[in-house]
Amino acid sequence: MQGNASNGNGSEASATQQLPTNKDNTPYLTTNQGTRVYNNDHSLTVGPRGPILMEDFHLIEKLQQFDREKTPERVVHARGVTAKGYFEVTHDISHLTSAAFLNGVGSKTEVATRFSLVTHGRDSPEGLRDVRGFATKFYTSEGNWDLVGNNIPVFFIRDGFKFPDLVHALRPNPANNIQEAWRFLDFLSFHPESAHMMTWLAGMEGIAADYRHLEGYGVNTFTLVNAEGKSTYVKFHWRPKLGAKFMTDDEAQSTGEFQMRHSHATHDLYNAIADGNFPQYDFYIQTLDPKDEYTLEFDPLDCTKVWPEEDFPLQPVGTMTLDRNVDNFHNESEQIAFSPAVTIGGIGLSNDKVLQSRALSYADTQRYRIGTNYQMLPINAPKCPFHNSHENGAMNFMEKTGQVNYWPSTLESVETSPEGKEAHTVSKQEVSGQRVKQDIPEEKQNDFKQAGERFRKMGVRERGQLVFTLSNWMADPKCTSEIRHRWLDIWEQVDGGLAAALKAALAGQKPLQAIKEGKLGGHPDKMGASKA
Ligand code: HEM
Q: Which domain covers residue 465, as residue numbers?
C-alpha cells in the first residue's frame, strides 16, 4: 500500500510514524535510504586503484554523516551525564502548591537527571575544582517541570546581565587556552557579592567526589502557588541518601577506579546503576511568606545568600531514585534540554534577577545547539499529550493531520485549560517603579556577613583548604598586586582572621602552619571534613 511501510514486526505503520531505529529490522545492511548495501568494504572506483566516483552515494552519505556527528556542546555545563528514574512524594505539600505530582504521598513521577561540571569542555576531567550542575526533568501528568540547580547553594552574581563576563573570566584565557586564576579574581574583585560563593568553591566543597554523593540546590528563589492562589517563596534542596562527599586536590589527582580520573564520576554513576545500587536523593523545601520578604537583613531574592536553615528549616517532600542509565549518550545526555522557565501550574518563578535572565537563555541556546524542534526529541518531549499551533521548522517529525493550524477556530474543539491553575506559574505580585539599571538597595546587599559566618563555623581542616586554594589563586604570577589587594580588602571585611591567614600564606607560610600559629583562629579540636 502506497505511503505505508512494514516496521519489520509484521505490522504496517504509516511512513511518517515509523521512527528510525537501529533495531534489527532487516537482515541486510542498508543506506539511510533503505537501499541494500552489496559491498561495505570498498569505495566505488574506476579500476581497483581509483579514482573514486562521485556517484558512490553510500560513501558520500557515510562520510558526510560522520563529518556532522558533533553537535555544538553546551556553552556552559558541557561535561555531564544523565540517568533516569522516578520521584516519589513522601510528604504532601498541597497546602503550598497545586502541582498535581507533588500532591498525595506515594505519587510517582518519571524523571531524568543530568549532573555536570560548568566551566570546561564536553570531554574535560571530572575531578576539577568547579561547581557541579544538578538538573532534573520531571515528566509530570501536567507537563514537564525542570529544576535546574547546582551543588552549591549560592551563586557568584545577583544579576544575570553579568553571566557572560563571569563565564568568560572563569574559562581558559582566550590568548593561550589555559584557565588562569588571575582572570576570575580580577573580574570578581569588582563583585564582592561573590565572596560567599568563593568560600564554597575554594573550600572543601569545591571538588565533589562524584555524582552519587552530590547535593543539589535550586539556588534561585521560586514561588509555589496553591489551589487558592496563595503564593509562597521557596528554595529547593536535594540531599543524597549516601551523604555528600568531597575530595582534596590530592585525592582528585588520583581518583577513580584504575585512576580513571578523567571520567571517574560518569563511571561511578553508570556502574552503580548497572549493578543495581541506585542512588537516591531526598528532596526538601524551605519556604518564606512573601509578606515577610522585606523583614530580613538580606534580600531573599538575592541568590548570593542562603536562607539560614535555623530560621528556614528544611521540609521533606520526597525522594528521587535513579535506576536507569541512558540508552544512548548523545540522544539522552547531549540532547537533553533543561530550562528554569519550563514549569507547570503551582510552581512559578520570582523576581530574582538571575532567575529571570536564566528564563530566556536556556531555550535560546537549545534552539541553536540542538535545533528548532529540540522539544520533540523523546528525552525532551512531555509524557502527557500536547497540542498547539506551533508549526514546522527544521527536522520537525511530529505527525500532524488536519487543516486548522490556528486558534481559535469554529472547526476545532480544543480549549484553554478549564482549571486555570496553569496561571499559577505567573506571580500575582504587583510590580511598580521607575525603569532603572541598578543593583538591589545597598542596605540589603550585606555581601560579607554570611561568608564570614561560614568561615567562622569551619573546622581547622576546612579553613586550611580554603586558605590553601585562595592563596594559590592569589599567588598566580599573573595576579597583579592591585587584584590581590582588592581581594585582601574583601576578605578583611569577611573575617579579619581569614585575611591575616591569606597574607601569611602569600608571604610563604603554609596554611596549616598559619593555623597552628593561631593566625586562622578556629577550633583546633574541630578538624572539619566532608559531610559523608
Ligand atoms: C544568569 C545566569 C545564568 C545564565 C544566563 C545561565 C545560562 C545557561 C546556559 C545557556 C546553559 C546551557 C544550556 C544548554 O545548552 O542546554 C546553562 C546550563 C546550566 N545551568 Fe545555567 N545559567 C545561569 C545561572 C545558573 C545558575 C544560578 C544555576 C544553578 C542554579 C545554573 C545551572 C545550570 C545547569 C545545571 C546547567 C546544565 C543543564 C544541563 O545539564 O543540561 N545556571 N546555563
A: 448-516
In angstroms, the Cα distances linking 457 to 64, 156, 453, 526 are 58, 21, 6, 10
pLDDT of residue 424: 80
Residues 47, 108: one domain? Answer: no
The contacts of residue 169 (CB under 8 Å, 6+ apart) are 183, 184, 186, 187, 188
Distance 76 CA to ligand 1 centre (A): 7
The whole-chain average pLDDT of the chain stands at: 91
155 within ligand 1 shell (Cβ under 6 A): yes
In a domain? residue 437: no
Structural domain count, the chain: 3
Q: Is 239 in the pocket of ligand 1 (CB under 6 A)?
A: no
186 pairs with which residues across the strands? none
Is 74 near ligand 1, meaning CB less than 6 Å away?
yes
Any idea of the CA torsion for 422, 426, 427, 432, to the nearest 10 degrees?
-150
Cα separation, 144 vs 380, whole angstroms? 9
CA–centroid distance, residue 362 to ligand 1 (Å): 7
How far, in Å, CA of 284 to CA of 236, rounded? 6
**Are 263 and 357 part of one and the same domain?**
yes
How far apart, in whole angstroms, are the C-alpha atoms of residue 118 and residue 80? Answer: 9
Same domain, 109 and 245: yes
Bond into 164 cis (ω within 30): no
Work out the number of other CB atoms within 10 angstroms of the CB of residue 48.
Answer: 6
Q: Answer whether the bond into residue 279 is a cis peptide, omega within 30°.
A: no
Q: How far is CA 391 from the centre of its chain?
A: 29
- Mean pLDDT over 465-471 rounds to 95
Q: Is the beta carbon of 513 within 6 A of some atom in ligand 1?
A: no
Atom of ligand 1 at shortest range from CA of 155: 27
Nearest residue (by CA) to ligand 1, atom 34, is 133
> For residue 521, is it within any domain?
no
- The per-residue b/e assignment along 314-327, b for 16 or more CB within 10 angstroms, e otherwise, is eeebbbbbbebbbe
Give 318-356 pLDDT, tens digit per residue.
999 999 999 999 999 999 999 999 999 999 999 999 999
Ligand 1, residue 161: give the atom nearest the CA: 1
**Residue 21: exposure state from Cβ atoms within 10 A (0-12, 13-18, ≥19):** exposed
The single residue listed with the C-alpha cell 562520510 is: 63
Q: Is the pLDDT of residue 253 over 90?
A: no
Q: Are residues 86 and 51 in the same domain?
A: no
Please report the pLDDT score of residue 530 as a whole number.
34
Q: Is the pLDDT of residue 485 over 80?
A: yes
